[in-house]
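Progress note, project year one: complex with hypoxanthine.
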Amino acid sequence: MLPTTLTHDFIKGLPKAELHLHLEGTLEPELKLALAERNRVDIGQTTIEEVKRSYQFDSLSSFLQVYYPAMNVLQREEDFYQLAMAYLHKAREHNIRYVELFFDPQAHTSRGVAFETVINGYHWAVRESGALGVETALVMCFLRDMSAQSAADTLEQALAHRDKILGVGLDSDENGNPPGKFREVFHKARQAGLHLTMHCDIDQHNSIGNIRQALLDIQVDRLDHGTNIVEDPELVAYVRDRGIGLTCCPVSNGFVGDMKGNEILQLLRAGVKVTVNSDDPAYFQSYVSDDMFALAQNYPMTPAEMVQLARNSFDASWLSDDRKAAYQQEITDYVAGY
Ligand code: HPA
Ligand code: ZN
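Model obtained:
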């Protein structure tokens, strides 16, 4: 039965998918320090407190300035594997049954780590994830503040590993880097049979214009963040009618403004396949159940609406219809037995 009030326990046990999770954003301070020592990389901090104190950001760009330098500790295939496995243990704890894992190869190839090192390390974890009870897939993101040519070169490298990648995305600094910059590379990815998503971060310069471009021009299958879509009722109807998912991240949003809880609930109630995700859980110190609970604590919502968010997380995924139906049944069984 549905509980009368939403508890963290109910939310944690609810079967769910995570669709907006950057593997590089799961690097917890403990692992960061251990890898820094193992690979003899000076990250400027030597204690967990120092690492945590460096997590000061109030905008996307100030976040990215902390985020990218930390990746220097990732050097070898085992490092990428270990990072992903650490997250998958967390995922199991939060009853995340399926996750589409974002990763940023250019953040590593640009500092001399081979593409193969990155993809093989992450894929190693994907192969082992089933044994942990978490189904996984990899989604390769291009860095939008790098050139379109660099994205095209990265796609070329990825196509030699086509079987390891389910889709492509676009992240990093949106300012001055609209979706249209990557029209060709996304077109090529589509032709290769890859699913398409892209970040339309909150409250960007020309957010709604970028959302329109992503939907109508690039024809993405999903939007990451994208809550500014509420500014345009016609675009809201467009995503609702096509079942296009929005992967929202309330705690991450809260770091740079408000959680956008009103927008998330407005979209949910309008029938849009909106989902709740953790984005970069090690940096925002919030895994997906914590994000869902934070939403419920700060905005009035019902247990049935929380269950709908979990249902949307599978519906907006790139799983087969059979797998989606199996997970929907898990949700039905969980609620019936609660
Ligand atoms: N937006 C843009 N780039 C990112 C994000 C995000 O939410 N997380 C990690 N890289
Ligand atoms: Zn993100």
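The pocket of zinc ion (ligand 2) is lined by residues 20, 22, 171, 199, 224, 279 (CB under 6 Å).
Residues 8-337 form a domain with the TIM Barrel fold (CATH 3.20.20.140).
No further modelling is planned for this target in the current period.
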